[in-house]
Amino acid sequence: MYGLPKDIDLRFLEQNELQNISVGKYAVILNFEAEITMTIQSRFVCSVDERSKVVDEKLPSSASGMLALVGDRVIKADGCANGTLKLTFSSGEYLVVYDDDPNYESYVITRAGNTVVVV
Q1: How many independent structural domains does the chain possess?
Q2: Could you tell me if residue 6 is inside a domain?
């Protein structure tokens, strides 16, 4: 739970389409264009329509709310010093991932040759 560096530039996520989602017992893996992957192992919130949100800490069932995001593009990627990451998608939906466990990695973002790890 060390957060993100203050100077982190997450714009490389923007304009990339979420192509598929893989779900495991302890992780959700988002696969984007441009060889970008995000492995989530922490709590997250995903909007599923304009009026409701899915907030569920139990994997793998919590990942079902993300399926509507497949095929959408990230239009904005924001990171906070506390490690919270918010991705806003072209559909208006969003995904917020929290860095909230001091014992485990919360999420890992990898793009060709460059990895951002939040611990």
Answers
A1: 1
A2: no
Residue 65 domain boundaries = 11-118
Which stretches does DSSP call E strand in 1-119? Answer: 18-23, 28-32, 36-40, 44-47, 53-55, 74-79, 85-89, 94-97, 107-111, 114-118
Integer Cα distance of 60 and 74 in angstroms: 23
Q: Which of 56, 53, 91 is nearest to 75 (CA)?
A: 91
With a pLDDT cut of 90, the percent of the chain lying above it is 55
- Dump pLDDT digits (tens) for 49-88: 765 565 556 777 778 888 989 999 999 999 998 999 999 9
Q: Is residue 57 part of a domain?
A: yes
Going from the C-alpha of 62 to that of each of 5, 8, 51, the distances in angstroms are 28, 28, 18
Structural domain contains residue 1:
no
For residue 101, how many other CB atoms are within 10 A of its CB?
13
pTM of the full predicted structure? 0.90
Looking up tokens 């990695």, which residue turns up? 105
